[in-house]
Amino acid sequence: MRSPNKIQRIQYKVKDFIRKKRKVLRNRKGKLSRVKQRYHHPSNLVLAAGLSAASVIYYSNSRWLGLPLSLGVIVLCIIQIFRLRERERRKLKELASKPEVEVDDYLAYLYQCFPLRAVSRIFGVLSEKELPKPLLNRFLSLYCKYFNVRLDEANIDSIDSYKTVAEFFQRELKPTVRIIHDDSPLVVPCDGRVLHFGKCKEGVVEQVKGVRYSVERFLGKYPVLSDSQNSDLFYCVIYLAPGDYHLFHSPCSWTIDKVIHFPGTLMSVNPKICKLVRGVFTLNERVLLTGTWSHGFFSYTAVGATGVGSIKINFLKDKIKTNKGFLTFLKDTEIEVSPEVTLEKGGMLGGFNFGSTIVLMFEAPKDFQFNLEADQRIQMGDKLGSLDVEDST
């Protein structure tokens, strides 16, 4: 058995370490109360006791060394979990009175740990490769059957005519299968399902029922309305399922003056996932187009998702490349569009590879009314909303 003097020396070192830390932090202004909470916390007392106990066991050459050390680590992990849960509970309690819901929860963090960007990148590369014809045809036929794809509406309605999966996803429709309602100030920009719509109240938008996120966080800054006295900020969220038509169009005649690319994760935007993970749209990669229409500010955002590594905006060509490089080293890219690009109602704007989400935020007179219902199936060109002034004329 080794000398007890070594055991005592280790115990003294542990106590001296805690004492020095407390002394250093006590000298910082306003930190005394926090120091007491931090170093008198049960977990730190357990840590000191565990180190002392481990040193005794180690220097006594006990054959049961592994058991107490393992139990000590488990106890410390459990205590730390309870501390994190308590901290999260306090954060949520503090934010309960605020309009914005905190998005940095554990579920979102765990979900982001999966290699979603890498999977989407691999999927994007494979979708552009020319696969053996029997394999490609088999895959596309199963895809159409499983997701109820209306291939009869496409310009190319034969599976044999597609050379790649990407070409199938980017298929265009026959001109006669969608009607653009020119009598409506706004039309639906894509096929899909309505997740949510309404006015932006207190600077927040509902992702799905009961789950909100900040307008400023989503757009980068809160928009300035041209007539704040007589106008409001409205929004509409449309989900494109994998079986939907994947190209998106302009909902009105408007002018684009700025494009912002926000790098981010590529989590699924399926409504079931949106209910579980708060702030998916603020965390995911997205391309934001901003400009003006006849009633003021207008923004159009294409949100990426798992498998949708590529967001294509036709007039940008290769100026913005999505899902490229390591996320930690990427920064927001802002492009001033010069000369400004003018789009007509129903004009082609871009496309996804696998279905995703379109978010419209726009300024409109206070009497603007949506012609939509929650969870409604809609098609490109349908009436999105109306104004009492236009209806009366």
What's the total number of strands? Answer: 16
The proportion of residues in beta strands is 15-25%
> What's the main sheet like?
8 strands, antiparallel
Query: Level of helix content?
Result: 25-40%
Task: Provide the structure class.
Answer: alpha+beta
Number of helices: 12
Mean pLDDT across all residues, rounded? 75
Distance between the termini: 100 Å
The parts where pLDDT drops under 50 for at least 5 residues are: 24-43, 59-65, 95-104
Approximate shape = globular
- Radius of gyration, in Å, reads 28 Å
Question: Can you put this structure into words, describing what you see?
Answer:
The longest helix is centred in the first third of the chain and has 30 residues, at 66-95. The protein has 12 helices and 16 strands. The protein has helices at residues 4-26, 32-39, 42-59, 66-95, 106-112, 116-127, 133-147, 165-169, 215-219, 271-276, 280-283, 388-392; strands at residues 186-187, 192-199, 204-208, 211-214, 231-239, 247-249, 254-262, 286-293, 296-303, 312-313, 333-343, 348-351, 357-365, 369-370, 377-378, 383-386. The strands form 4 sheets. Strands 11-7-8-9-13-5-2-15 form an 8-stranded antiparallel β-sheet, with no helix packed on it. A 3-stranded antiparallel β-sheet has the order 1-16-14. It has a 3-stranded antiparallel β-sheet with strand order 6-12-10, with no helix packed on it. Helix 1 packs antiparallel against helix 3. The chain is globular and about 85 Å long. The model is unreliable at 24-43, 59-65 and 95-104 (pLDDT under 50). A hairpin with a 2-residue loop joins strand 8 (286-293) and strand 9. By secondary structure, it is of the alpha+beta class.
